Amino acid sequence: MQYLFKFRNAAKSALIGGLGLLLPNCEEEPSPPLSPTQALESFVLAEDNVEIQLVASEPMIQDPVAISFDEAGRLWVVEMLGFMTDIDGSGEQDPVGRVSVLFDDDQDGAMDRSTVFLDSLILPRALAVVEGGVLVSENIPLWFAKDTDGDFKADEKILVDSTYGGSGMPEHSANGLWRGIDNWIYNAKSKFRYQYQAGKWVKEETEFRGQWGIVHDNLGRLFYNYNWSQLHADLVPPNALLANKHHIPTSGIDHGLTLERAIYPIRSNTAVNRGYVPGTLDEQGRLLEFASACGPLIHRGDGLPAMYSGDAFVCEPTANLIKRNKIIEEGFMLSAKGVYDQKEFLASTDERFRPISLASGPDGAIYIVDMYKGIIQHGPYMTPYLREETLKRKLDRPIHMGRIWRISSKTPNHDRQTDLSKADARALLKLLGHENGWTRDMAQRLLIEQGLSIYEDLLKVVHEGNPLARLHALWTLDGLGWKEAASLLPSVNTMDPKAASTVLQLIGRTDTSQADIQSQLSQFAEQNYEQAHPLVQMQLVLLTNKMTSNTAFEISRKFLARFGQLAVARDVVMASLENREAAMLTHLVSQKGWTSYNQNREIFIEMLATAITNKGSQNELKFLIDKLDATLPSEELWLKTAIANGMINAKGGDKNGEIVLAKAPDFLSDEEPFFSLSQKLSWPGKIEVPQEDKGGKFEVDSELFALGRQKYLNLCANCHGTDGAGMKRFAPPLKNSEWVEGEAYKLAMILLHGMEGPVTVDGKLYDTPDILPSMPAFTTLQNNDIAAIATYIRNSWGNAGSPISSGVVGGIRFRTQGKITPWKASELDTVQYDPNQ
Questions:
Q1: DSSP 287
Q2: pLDDT in tens, 418-437
Q3: Strand 355-360 to strand 366-370: parallel, antiparallel, or no bridges (unpaired)?
Q4: Taken in order 434, 439, 441, 447, is the CA torsion positive or negative?
Q5: How many whole angstroms from its chain centre is CA 476?
Q6: Nearest-angstrom CA–CA distance, 237 and 505
Q7: What gap in Å lies between CA 240 and CA 255, rounded to an integer?
Q8: DSSP state of 205
Q9: Taking a C-beta distance cutoff of 8 angstroms, is the pair 252, 241 a contact?
Q10: How far apart are CA 295 and CA 398, in angstroms?
Q11: Model confidence over 162-175: pLDDT tens digits?
């Protein structure tokens, strides 16, 4: 398909008339609202071993956006009644939102009645049932609401965080309130987590994650997504990579699991915001790829057949469907792959079916929050095209509808305990290993809230329980304040890898400053590292800051030898090296083989040099300068280049970002990267040499440039080389490449969607087998990351190109909606794009 990229003035009425040329020639009757019974007939499931049933609908609930079950099996629902009540979004700030509690009195699976727990809320979007009350996120504030007399109506409303929501825009504000396995409450579109400690709510910074919805798997790894990228996850425990303040990690968190973006609706989706962009819809008017991925769920229940266990389900409300992905584990790495070919797990012919979040229940089933609303796009993003299409299809009325659906096995287990509100500690201990993830999570939460001294009982589960019970028993111990995790070291070898890695993680959370614990850890690592599972090896490396230096460096070196090609592995090692970076560098270059060139070694030496420079110690800066001043054999000169590049990437020590030295270094030369480094160094009496003398490069933001290099080394260098010269059998050069220095938008398009060979670079034709058949896409990356990579390679290795902004990348991403195959050079030659129109 040939693409024509011209920004159009969406405010002009002429646009609307011309859009018909871009859309499929199809006429449809407006989509009428369906009754729940009619809507049930609109669903198509990919498998015949599950069924879908109605749990609740209007008028009992209206505009639901999030749900959660409490310990008694009652269903709590967040209702966002103020969202898009008309095409103009009128009354959005009216306090009409609420939280309701639904009751299934006859235990038949359908809710029988409801009560309003808390009302007069502005655009509420998430909740978490916790001890003594409920956390509720409103438009911006986060509240803790309590019912003190048992009538399921809030009597107290306590402000927890006045800034929780951030911008307040529904799709770009904090949400989720997901209780992680580590007893912290995590959020999407947020860099904060919360926990109730000693009678008060504690707010703590963590890594930024996702857009709408967040969940965890059995190990506790967090999963989330973005409207344009369906599934991301953490590869490491939260905050584990933040332990070294001298190092800024760029991997491990927000790891895109799949490049798959194609979706397969079973009805037209012309009322979608990007419907006027060529390539967004097929000839039948059906959406080609994700436009509003949200509400992911890792199925951990037992209410569906075993084949679904551990699978990821992702909502796509604009396409009226839910996608199923199989999660693939390889050591500590995760990836995902769609289960079906050209169909989805659940799809509907009803245009108003809007699955926006998913939840697990006491019965082990999957629950779907269906906002059942014609207008799903927020007002600020309502284009003239979408406005006309929405009104034409009469999707603006009626309002205040909504449904909750349940997907379960056709042969469900009805003999189960779904009310845990009266369960004592003995009963809850038995449930820590239950087949249903909801039951395990709830048992862990209730045991912690009971606050009993049951350490010995939990330790018995740790030693004798099934693998899942061990995990939850360990985190229950942690939630109860147990600090003796090091006592479990002798039994770690008897545990499965996930429980073993969890024990090590808990050890890292306790006081390990005692010499005997450091000695025990070091001895354990020395004896067990080689035969350990990669999950355990990674966790041991994250603990090396608690070990003796010799052991720490050897363990880290072995980890790099096996996994050094992975960006996350390098970040894991760096996270444990605070204040040991210079010693680690000395250790590595003293090892046989480490002075011979290897690209992975080069990248890691550069990372060490950056961290050492960020630390700012004059003694350690002198250590680096001495390395640059030293005379080395020609085969070891790469070490100097790596150190120089690392220093260039550092933040610098003064307000100008310069690295301040006590005297002039001896290594100065006109060769890159030493000239670039000399520009960043400062010393008494230095005579400044204008950078323009080296080719008149564009003004580039130093932080963006440094981020670009980090991302490039992590994602691109394995094929294009750290020097941009390309690598035989992998990829052509980026140095002197017209694809890099040419039109910025074409480079952004290549990074977003990849590129197929053959391709001509600097007058030479590259094709298989001299290069790989295609370059992968980077659609899972944020716009700013792609902009940083593009800006970096356009201003490195002698290239000189203007920086690329995240806004331009976002525009390209928008205009290339529907492009799910790599570009060919011939396609790119025909593309036109004017960012000024």
A1: B
A2: 799 999 999 999 999 999 99
A3: antiparallel
A4: negative
A5: 26
A6: 8
A7: 15
A8: E
A9: yes
A10: 24
A11: 999 988 788 889 99
Of the candidates 814, 822, 777, the residue with the CA atom closest to the CA atom of residue 258: 777
Mean residue pLDDT of the chain comes to 90
Rounded mean pLDDT, 379-401: 93
Q: How far apart are CA 610 and CA 653, in angstroms?
A: 12
Distance CA(474)–CA(468), nearest Å, equals 10
What's the sign of the alpha-carbon dihedral 151, 155, 161, 167? positive
Q: Angle at which helices 549-563 and 599-615 pack, to 10 degrees?
A: 140
CA distance 557 to 654: 33
End-to-end CA separation in angstroms for the chain: 23
**HSE-CB of 417 using CA atoms within 13 angstroms:** 16
The 8-class DSSP code of residue 84 comes to T
Look at the alpha carbons of 420, 425, 430, 434 in this order and tell me if their dihedral is positive or negative: positive
Q: Which residue type, as a one-letter code, is found at position 469?
A: A
DSSP result, 515-573: HHHHHHHHHHHHHHTTTS-HHHHHHHHHTGGGS-HHHHHHHHHHHHHHHTTSHHHHHHH
Contacts of 22 (CB under 8 A, 6+ apart): 276, 277, 278
| Closest by CA position to 411, among listed 450, 364, 346 | 364
Smallest CA-to-CA distance from 712 within 593, 652, 623, 797 is with: 797
Phi-psi region of 220 (alpha: psi -120 to 50; beta: other; left: phi over 0): left
Measure the CA–CA gap between 68 and 72, rounded to whole angstroms: 11
Which helix (H) or strand (E) covers residue 36, if one does? helix 36-42
Query: Which DSSP string corresponds to 449-494?
Result: HHT---HHHHHHHHHHS-HHHHHHHHHHHHHTT---GGGGGGGGGG
Quick one: how far is CA 516 from the chain centroid? Answer: 38
The DSSP output letter for 419 is -
* Residue 188 dihedral angles phi and psi, to the nearest 5°: -90, 160
Structure tokens at 35: 């009754």
Name the H helices within 663-701: 674-680
Question: Nearest 5°: phi and psi at 248?
Answer: -105, 110
Give one DSSP letter per residue of 562-621, joined into a string.
HHTTSHHHHHHHHHT-TTTHHHHHHHHHTSTTTTS--HHHHHHHHHHHHHHHHH--HHHH
Local structure of residue 822 (DSSP, 8 states): P
Given a contact cutoff of 8 angstroms between Cβ atoms, the answer to whether 428 and 71 are in contact is no
Query: In 10 A of CB 709, how many CB atoms?
Result: 25
Distance between CA atoms of 520 and 538, rounded to whole angstroms? Answer: 18
Q: What is the CA 536 to chain-centroid distance, rounded? A: 23
209-229 tens-digit pLDDT:
999 999 999 999 999 999 999
Cross-sheet strand order for the sheet of 75-79: 64-69, 75-79, 97-103, 113-121
- The whole-angstrom separation of Cα 720 and Cα 734 is 7
* For the ranges 407-421, 594-608, 640-654, the one whose mean pLDDT is highest: 594-608
Cβ contacts of 461 within 8 Å, gap of 6 or more: 429, 432, 433, 469, 470, 473
Tokens standing for 584?
């680690």
Q: Please, are residues 288 and 820 in contact by the beta-carbon 8 Å criterion?
A: yes
CA 800-802-805 angle, 5° bins: 140
